[in-house]
Amino acid sequence: MTIRQIGEEGAVRLISKGGDKTNFENSIRAVERETLNDRVYRELRTMIMSGGFVPGAEMKLRTLAQSLHVSLMPVRDAIGRLVVERALKMLPNHRVIVPEITIDEFLEIRRVRILLEGEAAALACAHIGTDGIAELKRLHEKIKSLGTNKQRQFWALNQEFHFTIYEAAKSPLLLSMIESLWLQIGPVFNQIPINLTSEGARGHQRIITALSSGDAKAARAALTEDLMKGGDRVIATLIQDKQPAG
C-alpha cells in the first residue's frame, strides 16, 4: 500500500466514522489558509527588516494584497501580528504605519544589537562550517558587485549575510531577540544612500576572515565594528534629515 493510498483511505475512514466530508474539506482549507497567512507574514516581516518600507508609510491592506497576489485576509492577519511585535504601529484612527525612529531610540537599539549580534557571531564560529563560509563569500561578492542606485538590493543582501551568521549560532532564543530588533530598525535602512552602504562590504570581509579562522573574539570584534560604522552612517543621515531645507 502506498502512502497516497493510506492517506486516501484514512480520509475515507475519517468521513465514514460519523465524519462530515464538508468538515473534512474545511479542515484542509484551514490548513492551507494558515500556511498562506504564515507566508504573507514572513514576506512582510522580511521586507520590514531589510528596509522595504519607508518610516512613516501607511500599510494599506488592499495595496499590499495586490502586490503579494493574495486576498485581504492573510494580509490583515500578518499586519495584526506585526503590530503586536511593534514592527508596525496602529494609530487611534486604526490606520497602520511603519514607525519612525528617533536618534536616541536608534542608539539604544544599536547598543543591544552589539551585545546580541556580537554573541551570535562568536557562537557561530563553532558551527558555521565550510558551507556557511561559502555562502557568506557568495553574498559578499554579490554586495561588492552592486552598482549605484541599488539601495534596496544592498539591504536585502546585507540582511541575508547577517542572518546566515546568526542562524549558524544555533541559538533559537538569541535569533528571535535579534529579529525583534531588526524589525524595529529595518525601515531606517531605507533612508541610507547606496554610496554610503557600499562601504559595508569591507566590514563584511573582516567578519568572514574571523569566522573562517574560528576566532570567536575576532568575530565579535569585527561584527561590533561593522555595526558601529554602519550605525554612524545611519545617525549622520538622520541628523541631516532633521535639518531645515535651504
TrEMBL record:
Q: Which InterPro entries match?
A: GntR_C, TF_FadR/GntR_C, Tscrpt_reg_HTH_GntR, WH-like_DNA-bd_sf, WH_DNA-bd_sf
Q: Which UniProt keywords apply?
A: DNA-binding, Transcription, Transcription regulation
Q: Does the keyword DNA-binding apply?
A: yes
Q: What is this protein called?
A: GntR family transcriptional regulator
Instruction: State the organism named in the record.
Output: Bradyrhizobium frederickii
| Ranges in a coiled coil | none
Question: What Pfam families does the database record attribute to this sequence?
Answer: FCD (PF07729), GntR (PF00392)
Q: Which SMART domains match?
A: FCD
- Would you say which domain of life the source belongs to? Bacteria
Give start and end of each HTH gntR-type domain.
34-101
Q: Name one GO molecular function term.
A: DNA-binding transcription factor activity
